[in-house]
Amino acid sequence: MTGPTGVGIGWRPEIAGFVAELPGLRFVEVVAESVAASGPLPPGLADLRGRGVTVVPHGVRLSLGGAEPVDPARVAHLAAVAELVAAPLVSEHIAFVRAGGLEAGHLLPLPRSRAAVDAVCANVARAQAEIPVPIALEPIAALFDWPDDELDEAAFLTEILDRTGALLLLDIANVYANARNRGADPLDLLDRLPLERVGYVHVAGGAEHGGFYHDTHTDPVPPAVLELVGELCARRRPPALLLERDGAYPPASVLRAELDALAAASGFPVVT
Amino acid sequence: MDDLAARQPEQVDDLAARQAERVDDLAARQAELVAALVAGGPVPPGFAPAPLAAARTALLRKRAGEVARHWPLLAASFGSDWTATFAGWAAGRPTQGSLRDGWDLARALRERGTLPPLGAEELALREAAARYDGRRAPRPRRLPSLGRAGGAVAVQVAGRVRLLRPASRAA
């Protein structure tokens, strides 16, 4: 199967009917933990595979940034799902989701320290040894930073990518959220990331609550995020962009308009 | 690895020991942070309290949405108060997964007598379908059984569950 290209959407059971009817769609992502390793694929997803649509398994619970070694059973599951959908690559986050026997329930940021870089790289290497296709790593949106960061975000990410040889899954909404919450310029990060390593890009909506911008995936994509997509593509257009929506699903016309806006901002063909 | 090979064995041991120490330190600090976010633990030294509080709230909001997917009637029975109701109960209580979180909350509300009728009916159906001891994952019941909550009665026979009697609704 070819790598992801053009405008895609995160496949979720709730919008399977909508996704199935997108005539130009060549690429979806599926949350890896939602697929049974032994199959069968959910019906809608199997139909997309039958049409030759690229399916990328997106892991959310490996906890690659955990200080402990990544759970071999979770790696085996991601590898099995990759085989099941004949994926050209898989993706996961530069984050941790559990520690000390407790589940955080969400992606948590790492300290940008040498120790954390070592921990992530060791876990990515463990995953790469078992997964038959390349892995793309996604930097997360974080509401807080650790007090003892030794590296800035660009240096931290570049070091991890260099040492692991992994691709970058760049979430442009996360870039926007982090810059806005830190009072920084998102273009500074875009200018310093190795954009030639981008496997594909995430785009999602968010909203402000209590003085912080939250990357909710349940709100519309703000115009500022679409502008940032344009800035990214002006620097180097990624091979593919994917819209993530994870709840409060709007009417089909609204989702269609968001996909069209992505196509317009990137210059890729419309898929609707 | 190349730079390791060039070192004397005792230097390598020393380096390995320092790395192990840093990994242990990272593990301990990650555990403190998760405890602060989901289990009511103290804010770890050096972290700014306001952003951490925002993260704690965001986690509860996300959990509320996930539990609502597993317990749609329970969530619907609270309408727009669902997120606040769930968050009030779940703050300081680490997740046991959405199915068990919703189950534990529904039982707690039943104890207090504040479980709304729709939620009671959903709980009765779940109690009839599976055995849940509050500590481990619920397991399907093999024998025919009844589930009760708030006046609602559900029956399960051969894996099929239905409501025999709706929950009592205030006149």
Describe the structure concisely for a colleague:
The complex is a heterodimer of chains A (272) and B (171). Chain A has 272 residues and is an alpha/beta fold.
Give a topology summary.
The complex is a heterodimer of chains A (272) and B (171).
Chain A: E1 6-11, H1 16-20, E2 27-31, H2 43-50, E3 54-58, H3 72-84, E4 90-94, E5 96-99, E6 102-108, H4 114-130, E7 135-139, H5 153-164, E8 167-171, H6 172-182, H7 186-192, E9 198-204, E10 207-209, E11 212-214, H8 223-235, E12 240-244, H9 252-266
Helix pairs in contact in A: 4-5, 7-8, 8-9
Chain B: H1 2-5, H2 9-38, H3 49-70, H4 72-76, H5 82-90, H6 98-112, H7 117-129, E1 130-131, E2 139-140, E3 145-149, E4 152-157, E5 160-165
Antiparallel strand pairs in B: 1-2, 3-4, 4-5
Helix pairs in contact in B: 3-5, 3-6, 6-7
Protein name (chain A): DUF692 domain-containing protein
InterPro entries (chain A): MbnB/TglH/ChrH, Xyl_isomerase-like_sf
Cross-sheet strand order for the largest sheet of chain A: 3-2-1-12-9-8-7-4
| Helix proportion of chain B | 55-70%
Within the CATH hierarchy, at the fold level, what is the topology of chain A?
TIM Barrel
Q: How many domain units of chain A?
A: 1
The coarse overall form of chain B would be elongated
User: Quick one: which chains have the greatest interface?
Assistant: A-B, 35 and 36 residues
- Count of DSSP H/I helices of chain A: 9
Mean pLDDT reading of chain A: 96
The top level CATH class name of chain A = Alpha Beta
Task: Give start-end ranges of low-pLDDT stretches of chain A.
Answer: none
Strand runs of chain B, count: 5
- Report the average pLDDT across residues of chain B: 91
Structural class given helices, strands, pairing of chain A?
A: alpha/beta
Protein name (chain A): DUF692 domain-containing protein
Organism (chain A): Micromonospora globbae
InterPro entries (chain A): MbnB/TglH/ChrH (IPR007801), Xyl_isomerase-like_sf (IPR036237)
Pfam family, one (chain A): MbnB_TglH_ChrH
